[in-house]
Structure formats: structure tokens, C-alpha cells
Design brief:
The complex is a heterodimer of chains A (258) and B (245). With 258 residues, chain A is α/β, with parallel strands linked by helices. Chain A is built from eight helices and ten strands. A six-stranded mixed β-sheet of chain A has the order 6-7-8-3-9-10, sandwiched between helices. With 245 residues, chain B is mostly helical. The chains are: A alpha/beta (258), B mainly alpha (245).
Chain lengths: 258, 245
Amino acid sequence: MASCLDLRAVVMRYGAGPGAVNALESIDLAVEDHEFVTIVGPSGCGKSTLLYLVGGFLRPTAGSLQLRGKEIAGPGPDRGIVFQRYSLFPWLTVRGNIGYGLDEQGMAKAERDRIVDEYVQLVHLEGFEERYPRELSGGMQQRVALAQTLACEPDILLMDEPFGALDAQTRRILQDEVRRIWRRDTKTVLFVTHDVEEAVALGTRIVVMSARPGRIKEMFVRGFDVGDGEEFEADPAFAELKLRIWRSVKEEVEAARA
Amino acid sequence: MRIVPLLLLICAWQAAASFGVLPKTLLPSFFDVAAQLGAHVRSGEIFGHTAASFARAGAGCGIAVAAGVALGLIMARMRAVERAMEPILLMIYPVPKPAMIPLFMIWLGIGDFSKVAVIALACLLPVVVATFNGARSVDDMLIWSARARGTSEARLLWRVVLPSALPQIAAGVRTAIAIAIIVLVSSEFISAEKGLGYLIFSYGGVGADDAMLAIVIWLAALGYFLDRGYLAGLRRVMRWHAFAH
């Protein structure tokens, strides 16, 4: 059976001539169904670019990107994306934002409202349905963005440093929620972050990228399970894996600075 | 508290008139002007003129908003239209529109059409510019977000570009409303039989400066409350947007 997502020899170059920037160089990556793959690397390594290519917002310079055996030709609701910020529609309420994709599918209002209510509960936003994004905290806005994306029932969930702009406590709570939702629905997730702890706490597989031009440097499979609680933090295996990955990332951060 | 400077200004005006700092022919007293305004309101005469004027301003401004939003959106999405329209708009922008009234009268007659047309032309530009800028500065993330949630390229204009541009369009319309009132008065100076501009011009022509100023003040007050009302309405309708003031 084909992988959920299959990237082969993907190259991404911005611009042309001597000023061209090589963002990504020969990326090969297959993501299987129900996997939670986190991509971690120094800033500017092209990890967000990789996600935008999968989203279909950018076209690769070379190589192939396939979703369920079909070449990705543009954006589509089979790939849901959560950006770091500002991706909610400010003129729509929480209800309008979560129901946006369903509305675009032409779903009748009654059915849409029922599904929206489900997702409002899933991300704990009961009572905020009629609020506008500017009336919500950053953490609540990201909950809405997550619900908006999940409501479209995508084949794969793409997350571009979704909690990078949040304070540490809110980030922890949302990480737990994402893990809970992933375990419940066994969604396939591709998650970009620069936070090693986040990468290990969430990913079943952790991909480390090199400094620009971005290449896949190393992959780590998290062999142990992370439950719903905080117990995993006391697990020596967690600390050890985090340290190994951090050392790998650190080399790249230093390479990027040099 | 906001009214204090205004009251001081009126006191200074009345004092200047009472103590003969300026002769009455140059500066009518505030009390005389107020009495004139009172008489016009009591007789009800001013309301018919006000209605005639605001119908013209409303029609001109309305046409400008409909055409301006459409043109601004098209220009923002289609390079060819932008390139074709930009020099024309930039040349029209600084032209004093009242100067074109005689020309419009030749084309459209001396009735309401020429007046509405000149108001519409004057109001068009701020609306086009605001819509264009608003539509051009739509956040890429919102476009991407909509595309990833199933919005087609064709529906983006309606679903994302227009609503994103609304705050800027609203600001452009506010400018257009002020311009409509300014141009309205000039358009009524010639060949009008009704309207506040006609009244101002008629009283000015016969040296009835107190009555003329009474109409000017009436117009200024209406303009002020129209602007306040517009902003209050916007805040209600566009609760999703954080207005600067």
C-alpha cells in the first residue's frame, strides 16, 4: 500500500541566477497513516517551506510530492493546515471560522452547526461560539484554527509551528490536546517546530533537518509511548532522546551561525 | 469637555462682532446667525432644501461606492486593468471636480444628473484607492488558509479579498461622504432651484451674510452628525474589527 505522503528528491530554490537561495535539497520522506512526524531544525532550514510544498501553496523546483499516490497539484481540503498565527478569518465568529470549510463544501446549515458544536467541545471553546478572533487570546485562536482544520476531516494534518507564538504554559496545554486528539482519531500529522522538547513530546518519529540548504539529517523513531499525562517527562528514555536530538540540532544551529 | 473649545470660539466670534472689532458687513454677529437658523428651522423651509441636497449627495456617493468597490477589486486582482486605469485615475484625482460642472451640464443637462455625476466622480477616487489598497494587502496566509479549506480561486474574491478589504473600504467611504458634501454645495451654485448650496449662493449674492452663514453652520452640523453616525454604525456592523479610534 502506498504511504499517506511520499516525497521524493524534492528540491526547492527561490529566485534564479547567482542570487538564488537553495531552500531544500533532495528531500526524501514517506509518512505512513497514523504517524505523527515532527520536523525540527534551525530557523531558516526550510522546514516551513517543506510544509508549504505539501500544502500545495508552493511548487517544488524539482522532485515529486504525492498524497495517496497522487501528485500534489495545489492546495486542497485533503490537507489541513494550521499556521503559526493570523490564519483565522477576522470577520467570522468562532462558529463561522470552524464551519468555514464545511460551508465551502456546501453543507446545509443544520448539519454544519451540529458538526461545529462537536469541534467546539473537542477544543473546549463552549460559550465562545459567537466571539470574533480579536476577542480571543492567542491560545484560544489556535484552538479555533485546530478545530477549523479538523472539521474538514483532512487525510493529513499539517502544522507550521502552531504554538510558537504562545506562552510556555498555554503551549504545554495545547500540546497535550493535540496529542489527545491524535490518539483519539489516529490522524496523520506532519508537525514543524524549532522546539526539540515539543518534537519529542508529540512525534512518533522525529526528523532533524540540516541548516540551509535544508536536507534531512537524521531521523529518530520514538520507541516508547507517551501517555496522556505528564509521566513521560520523568521517563529517562524521554530525556535521553531529547538530549540526542538536541545535540544533533545544535550542530546545525551552530553551522547556520558560522 | 469636548464642546468647550467650540463654545470659546463662538464666544470670541460674538465678542468680536459685539465690540465692533470687525464691521457687521464683514462679520455678522453669532446671535443674528443663530436667529436666522432658528427662523429657517421654524418655518420648515430648510428641510425641503436639505432633503434635495442630501438626495443628490446620497445618489452620487452611492454610485461612487458601488462603482469604486467594483473597480478597486478588479484592479487589485487584474494587472492589465490596473495598468490601464492607474494613469487615468491619477490624472483625475487632483482635478478640482467642481471645475468640471459646466462640462457635465453640457453633457447631462442642467438638472440633477449633472450634479449627481460630478459628486459621484469626486467620491469615486477615494473609494477606488481604498478598495485597491485593501484588496492588495490581503494576508497571504488568509488566502492559503481559504484555499486549503476548499475555496476555489474564483470564490476567493468574495470569501476573502472583499471582507479583508472592508476596514479600508469603510475608511474610503468616510472620506467620500465628506467630499460628497463639499462638492454638493459647489454643484448647487449653478442652475439649482432647491438645495442648501442654492440657498448659500442666493443669500450670499444679496448680501444676507447672517442667513448665508446660518445655512453653512446647518450644513456643517449635519456633516458632523452624519460622520459620527457613520462611525457608530460601522462599529456596530463591523464588531470584528478593532477600529483605531
